[in-house]
Amino acid sequence: MRLLRILGGLAAALPAMAAAGEPFSLLGISTGKNGASLSVPMQIVIMLTLMTLLPAAVMSITPFLRIVVVLHFLRQALGTQSTPSNQVLLGLALFLALLVMQPVLADMYHQGWEPMENGQLTPAQALEQGAKPLHNFLVRFAREKDIRLFIEISHSTAPRTPADLELRILIPAYILSELKTGFQIGAVLFLPFLIIDLVIASVTLSIGMVQLPPVMISAPFKILLFVLVDGWNLVVGSLMKSFYS
Q1: Bridge partners (DSSP) listed for residue 30
Q2: What is the dihedral sign for C-alpha 122, 126, 128, 129?
Q3: Bond before 123 cis per omega within 30 degrees
Q4: What's the mean pLDDT in 96-117?
Q5: What angle do CA 95, 101, 102 make, to 5 degrees?
Q6: Which residues lie below 8 Å from residue 174, measured CB to CB, with a gap of 6+?
Q7: Closest CA to 135 of 186, 189, 171
Q8: How far is Cα 87 from Cα 132, in angstroms, rounded to an integer?
Q9: Taking 60 as the threshold, does the pLDDT of residue 236 lie above it?
Q10: pLDDT of 68 over the 60 cut
Q11: SS3 assignment, position 30
Q12: Which range among 34-43, 85-94, 103-112, 173-182 shows the weakest confidence by mean pLDDT?
C-alpha cells in the first residue's frame, strides 16, 4: 500500500512539476532546468521495465521456487490431475513465500529505502545497503557446490568470505540449490503414494480386474490417506520450517 501511495503521488505531481519547469527527482534520479541525467519519460520506462522483472524475481529469489515445485510434485503423487488448480497452488506458494520474506523485505526497506528517502544515502548506496538482507538470505540456502560452479563459469575470483559473493553469482546458485531441494522433497513425497499404487496394481492384476486402470482405483485410497494424516498441514509445516532451521 505504501508503494501504491508513492507511485500515485508521483503520477499526480509529475505533470504539474514538469509544466512549471521545477527541478525534481524520480526514483533518486534528479531532473531540472540545468539538465537532467535522465528525462522523465526515460525514468518511467526504466521503472516499468523493472516492474516487469518483478514476477521473475519473486519466482526465482524467494522461497516461492521450492514451495511451488514441492506442491506440484505432491499433486502429481496424489494423482488428482488438476486439483488443486494451478491458480490455487500458485496463490498458496506466493503467500507462503511472502510470509518467509517479510522480515527480509522489512530489513531491505529500513536499510535502503528509508535512509535514501531521508537524504542520508545516495541511490547507489541505498541499493547496496538494501541488497544486504537479500544477500544474507540467499547465502543461507545456496549450496557451496553451486556457488563454485558459477564462479568457475564467470571466471571470477574466489571470495574470501560469503559476504564477498556477488549477487550475479549468488542468485543462479540459489536457484539451482532450491530446485535440487524441491526435487528431493518431491521424491520423498512420492514414495508412500507409489507404494499404494504398487499394492493396488498387484491386487487388481491378481484378481483379474483389468476393466479399470489401477490408478483410478488407487486415487481414492491415496486421497484418504493424505486426509487422515492431515497432509496439507504436514507438508506446508515442513516446508516452512525448512526456511527457519
Answers
A1: 25
A2: positive
A3: no
A4: 85
A5: 85
A6: 61, 138, 141, 142, 146
A7: 171
A8: 32
A9: yes
A10: yes
A11: strand
A12: 34-43
User: Are the C-beta atoms of 108 and 130 separated by less than 8 Å?
Assistant: yes
Helical segments of the chain, H only? 2-20, 40-60, 64-78, 86-108, 114-117, 123-141, 144-154, 167-206, 214-228, 231-244
- Amino acid type, 184: Q
Q: Is residue 38 helix, strand or coil?
A: coil
| DSSP code, position 164 | G
Residue 233 has pLDDT above 80, yes or no: yes
Closest of 109, 153, 151, 152 to residue 134, by C-alpha: 109
Return the SS3 of 25.
strand
> Residue 10 and residue 12: Cα distance in Å, rounded?
5
Query: Distance (Å, rounded) from C-alpha 125 to C-alpha 240?
Result: 33
Distance of CA 43 to the CA centre of its chain: 26
Q: Is 169 within 8 Å of 147 (Cβ atoms)? A: yes
